[in-house]
Specification:
single chain; 272 residues; alpha/beta; Nucleotidyltransferase, domain 5; 6-stranded mixed sheet; 36% helix; 15% strand
């Protein structure tokens, strides 16, 4: 296998904006609280359509490098009135991914309730809102769905949604004064190592043995960051950081997992 590009010459790369993190030292970084968010849709229509997405599932985790996953949030979202022409497209997209039913799905909650509960989870106390991150490939969809849910629910917070790849690059740059490439970071976050780990997917997707789950995406981001960075900071991995029990009990890696593992797997050294 060809190793991903690992180090980009510093003079050719603009460093990510880390000003919002205020990571002045290791202790500030280790104790910092981050939220990883994802929203799944029943489908996607072309950019010229007013209704681009139809939100159906939301997942979020509260995370720190020192303590791992501190709490998680998950809800299914009722689609409400389905726009004309959306149903067939949505059904095809759902059948090929998360398989959440478009209608007659009793687990869904209305958008206003979901959004209120999400904001209470992220921001339970008055003060500055914490950083909220998602994968860059999902950012447009997640941002659009949040704004749409705010408009329909008349709840306005205008959250700033950041790319988690920039967070990882920034941590490496601040800790080691070198930057891994975005290609390497994406490979780090896309491993299949944790796909079948217990307590990663929501209960419904776990019971139906479906890998596509909004909560699982968020938890796997936390697992990958922990696996790559915790030992570099002298943090012992726990069940809150990665599903240790499943990995240690199996004592094996499947070919699918091996194809997806980043080049730094099992190494305590940064990827440069």
């Amino acid at each position: 296998m060809r190793r991903p590009g690992m180090l980009v010459p510093k003079q050719n790369v603009s460093p990510p904006d880390m000003s919002s993190l205020s990571l002045k030292n290791d202790q500030a970084l280790l104790g910092g609280i981050f939220y990883f968010l994802n929203i799944f849709s029943h489908g996607e229509l072309p950019p010229h359509c007013e209704q681009r997405f139809l939100p159906c599932e939301i997942g979020c985790v509260k995370y720190s490098l020192r303590d791992g996953i501190l709490a998680d949030f998950h809800r299914f979202i009722s689609p409400g009135e389905i726009p004309r022409g959306f149903r067939f497209h949505c059904q095809a997209a759902s059948d090929s991914s998360h398989k959440i039913p478009i209608s007659n799905f009793e687990s869904g909650c209305d958008q206003a309730t979901v959004l209120q509960n999400l904001y209470r989870f992220i921001h339970p106390n008055p003060g500055k809102w914490p950083p909220i991150y998602c994968k860059s490939d999902d950012r447009a969809r997640v941002s659009w769905c949040l704004k749409r849910m705010e408009r329909t629910s008349e709840i306005q917070q205008n959250l700033e949604l950041l790319a988690v790849e920039d967070l990882v690059v920034g941590i490496y740059q601040q800790k080691f004064l070198k930057e891994p490439s975005k290609t390497w970071v994406r490979s780090l976050l896309d491993v299949a190592m944790w796909d079948y780990s217990s307590n990663t997917r929501c209960k419904w997707h776990e019971e139906h043995d479906i890998l596509f789950c909004a909560l699982a995406v968020c938890k796997k981001i936390a697992y990958c960051i922990s696996n790559s960075l915790a030992t570099l900071f002298g943090i012992q991995l726990t069940e809150a950081h990665v599903p240790l029990r499943d990995y240690e009990a199996s004592n094996r890696v499947t070919p699918k997992m091996m194809m997806a593992l980043p080049s730094s797997w099992g190494s305590n050294r940064p990827p440069f």
